[in-house]
Amino acid sequence: MDGELPANSRLIQDELARAYGVSRQPVQQALLLLRDRGLVREAPGRGLIVAPLDVDFVRNLYEIRVLLDGLAARLAAERAPERAKIEGPAYLEKGRIAVERGSLSEQIEADMRFHAFINELSGNPLIGETTAPHWPYLRRVMGEVLRDDSQMPQTILGEHVAILDAVIAGDGAKAETLSREHISRAAKIFVQRLKAQQESSEQEMRQRRTRRIR
Prior knowledge:
Number of domains: 2
Order of helices and strands: HHEEHHHHHHH
Strand content: under 5%
Helix content: over 70%
Largest sheet: 2 strands, antiparallel
CATH superfamily of the largest domain: GntR ligand-binding domain-like
Strand order of the largest sheet: 1-2
Distance between the termini: 38 Å
CATH topology of the largest domain: Four Helix Bundle (Hemerythrin (Met), subunit A)
CATH class of the largest domain: Mainly Alpha
Low-confidence stretches: none
Radius of gyration: 20 Å
Structural class: mainly alpha
């Protein structure tokens, strides 16, 4: 999820078992779990590899998140503005510290915790349960894009501040609108950059094939 292994990297069970100091069985179970979550896939003749990010799948995920995050923010404003006022600033502070440190993993973790907090405030546990299985994939998407963008983390933090302010004010309509816009903007940027990376990678592969033919 942190991008330490690039897309299409082979995942060899024996090597992973030695690297982590465990037997092959837990490695095999972990790889199957990662495959089920779309992070690993089978490649003909190569075994298991790190799955390339699927732009269409990312777009589909964010279309669902727009609706669910908007609903969560509206319900949070209607049901728990006082709790948001008391507990919310701590989540923003963690985000600020992560941005100041320039720590990508901390920024992603702070983002996930903020949205999990809003989901919790909504009082509807099904919102968080619906999105939870997809967070590992979303985390990988964020890591892939934020790694090359020094401005977006600050933008995301500012939008979190605005969402929390609306929740604290008890303004459900505004909280929902801000939350939807927040996810929509992120989705647009993520999809555009992933497509650009994909096209660049495909072009590089074509150039390599051309050089081999020559």
